[in-house]
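We emphasize that the prediction below concerns an isolated chain of 308 residues; any contacts that depend on oligomerization or on bound cofactors are therefore not represented. The input was used exactly as deposited, without trimming of termini.
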Amino acid sequence: MTTPKPALKYARHIALLAVLAIALVAASPLFTPRLPHGADTLTHFYKLVQLDDLVRQGILYSRWFPHKASGFGAPLFQYYAPLAYYVAQVFRLVGWETVTSLRLAFGLTLVGAGLGMYLWVRDVLDEGSAVVAATAYVCGPYMLFNAFFRGGFTEQFALMLMPWVLWTFRRLALTGQIGYLAAGAVSYAAVVLSHSLTALLFSPVLLAYTVVLAVGCRGPDAGTGGAKRLMTQWAAIALGLGLSAFFWLPAIVERNAIRTELVSVNPSLDYHYNFIPLKALLSRPLTGGIGPAVSMVAATLAVIGMVA
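Result of the prediction step, given as a token string:
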């Protein structure tokens, strides 16, 4: 029996350390004593301050935040997903002050996203591909923009959790183990409890992915076909919805108490206003430089917008 080469023997450990190092480099702007100057970062800071005040009074979960709206109060957690703030609150309870707790929670999203993407892609391909995928995910423009310039704290948590959901559901399809069923349900519920709109967009993708896994994976029950695997995965989704129902069910029941139509009135939130027009797409560069008039990313988004 031949002894494996040291490079192969420790490849997994080296790959994990590489992903962790890359994620920490991506999170390096959080190493300063100040919060990033994101558009919504300060808003999340105020919410965490109010949650900490409620928790320290013994109110562990409150849909009503009494200090919101200039002291009039607002039903924040009736409609706004709470999980990310409770993760940040854990750092508060162990002794970190509020700014540091929020910075640590932001950093956790980048590290967790990298590790989750690494596990999922390694399960499908190999170590090298997993490191590349994790790097691309953590250092992708939207991930970093969302963390440091937009300050989308709760959405960042959902982005971190999505690869974990895909990994646990693939392991569930391959093994059929009850542990992965529970992990899949909890991870999917965590996405729902992190950011409602991301969960709404991600859920159809997850449903399609379960069909792909049911057809393509060959686990211990391969002889019985993919129906059992599909039903098991859908059971995990149903269980995840049940675990998170304490949040989304009251929000749906009482949706008439708020004006949800205002979300589409604001031009900054309407996707129709976020694509360049056809004239700009086909225009010549305004300068004499050799660069294109628009970036490839903008051009691709414009084509998708015209097709949609």
